[in-house]
Amino acid sequence: MVRAAAAAGKHRKSAKFVFICVGLLGAALIADLLWATSSSSSQPSFTYKSLPLKLNSFPLPPLSSNYSAAKKDVRFLSKTFADLPGPQLEWEKMAPAPVPRLDGAAIQIKDQLFVFAGYGTIDLVHSHVDIYNFTSNTWGGRFDMPKEMAHSHLGMVTDGRYIYIVTGQYGPQCRGPTAHTFVLDTKTKKWEDMPPLPVPRYAPATQLWRGRLHVMGGSKEDRYTPGVDHWSIAVKDGKVLEKQWRTEMPIPRGGPHRACVVVNDRLYTIGGQEGDFMAKPNSPIFKCSRRNEVVYGDVYMLDDEMKWKVLPSMPKPDSHIEFAWVVVNNSIILAGGTTEKHPVTKKMVLVGEIFQFQLDTLKWSVVGKLPYRVKTTLAGFWDGWFYFTSGQRDRGPDDPTPKKVIGEMWRTKLSL
């Protein structure tokens, strides 16, 4: 009995000691949480450092639900799917766009960024233009687009005054494309019709080169099949000089959502994808249905002989970058996009890097990280500042899948 009572006493003392330790640990955790909360709330509201995104790997879930916890093997994605290392940049948050946009378009003319159309939600599309002034850092000057003009997946380019707008998707969800083309006089805000494309296209690569408006690739009328067609038509000062489009050398690889840039009298196409969402058969609202997509980082250049040359590929496959580029100091700067889908969850993976393609050396590098991963963002560059606005951002530093459609405007100083 004495031994039993002594043992019980020892057991009560041990239990009390364990209880005290657990209590102290809990108090420490609560204090740490309160400190982190107060620290984050004290940060300035408009100056922002790029989040320290995981640089080289992204953990995969277990292969099955009954995968033994004791034998879990931590596996990692390849660099194709992971964030690449890059400098952390100081980002400043500017006035947001009047509306959030996905799959919109943007053209910079001097210190103004003309932002067109885009989805507000999957069931709502915009049919107007907003203007951001880089000198005053303000939005203003909204005006309407023609009623017949596409609302997303546009091809677009400028000669410094006139903006040429080519084809795209008309309406929300996954509705069909239009072959309509337009030209906008940015000084008078007047629109004029141009000859329609031979056939409609989604998100074709579009550029002005040697006096001709070039339109290449994109997706065909079903929104999924890659097009490799290449047409051009002569234009000058907002006027079309020919009655019909001319057939040119097909692009080596078709599909939408690629960047198309002219620098030093050379035409480049960068990145893109094959395949896209399609409308569900017989859906009265053209509800989007997911399909397989192949994202690539191919780079092509059109030379003097009108032949395509293959150049070094991007550091990772990248798509949804058609208006996410600027030209700085003989290099092309590209921001964000989407890469290959997650190999297990099959979800879309967004890109958070800023890439630089040096045109003298034909070398790629990562020159910075965005505040978050984002696709179809709209970029501009003025007085040493790199700007981006709109698109669809990720779910957080540890989840690269798309979530919120945004209208935020950010800028950072780029020293290249």
UniProtKB/TrEMBL annotation:
Coiled coil: none annotated. InterPro entries: Kelch-typ_b-propeller, Kelch_repeat-containing. This is Kelch repeat-containing protein. Pfam families: Kelch_KLHDC2_KLHL20_DRC7 (PF24681). It comes from Centaurea solstitialis (yellow star-thistle). It comes from the Eukaryota.
